[in-house]
Amino acid sequence: MNWQMWIAQHVPATEIQRGGATVWPKGGHGLIGDRLGPVLHLHDDASEIFYFRAGRCRLEIGKSEAFLGPGDFALIPPGVPHNLWNAGEDDLLVFWIVAPNWVNNKWRTADFTPGAMERGALLGSVKHGADLPGDANIRTRLMALPDSTHSARTGEGQEAIVYMVAGRANVTVGRLAGKLGADEFVHVPVATPYSIAPAGSSATVLLFQMPGA
Q1: Could you give the CA distance from residue 58 to residue 42 in angstroms, rounded to a whole number?
Q2: Residue finishing a domain among 80, 95, 125
């Protein structure tokens, strides 16, 4: 994958969510565009997901850690201290979302609440038939579309991101339409109809909904 093109794709930051694609390059000192850096932190009243596309990650979760690789998925609930590092010799590619996006309270690096370091994350894997972890802030669905169209509409106060895992699909968002290939994604604004139809034999899609309730 050309990760320079991958991270050039844009997800607008709103009150509901912020996120997108980022890379910890081989030999680098942090994720591109991460103003905080590799520092243990938590999000007050917000959840975060990580979808690891390539490389090897050491994910710190309170007092524990997990090593994750391509296709692995993590949901960090609100108030759980976490941090990640590139634990391999290759580029680490990460797709992430934080929701809601509290503009004046993006993260906390000190004064954690009692018991926070004992809390954990929810882990999963993006593979056929997987039921990925979610919560009231972020719901994630892995959908295989062999020959049918998925049509929906974001609600008032809800946004979505359509991420193509494999195959190609014809995607319509409001009045805009186009094709998405593997590792391409598009943002769906509030109260907007959208549809996803395979452009070929099949398509596999990650659908992120914020809030997820």
Answers
A1: 17
A2: 125
CA distance 83 to 152: 34
DSSP output for 134-186: --SS-EEEEEEESS--EEEE--TT-EEEEEEEEEEEEEEETTEEEEE-TT-EE
Cα gap 199→130, rounded to integer Å: 23
pLDDT tens per residue, range 13-67: 999 999 999 999 999 999 999 999 999 999 999 999 999 999 999 999 999 999 9
Give the residue carrying structure tokens 């960090």.
Answer: 76
What burial letters (b/e) apply to 186-211, b meaning 16+ CB within 10 Å? bbbeeebebbbebbeeebbbbbbbbb
pLDDT at 147 over 80: no
Q: What are phi and psi of 56, to 5 degrees?
A: -130, 130
Instruction: Give the integer Cα–Cα distance in Å for 147 and 156.
Output: 30
- Lookup: tokens for 17: 């969510």
Range of the domain at 29: 3-125
CA distances from 149 to 106, 119, 141, 185, 205 (A): 36, 39, 15, 17, 12
The pair of structure tokens assigned to 176 is 């805009």
Six-digit token string for 23: 């890379």
**Within a domain: residue 51?**
yes
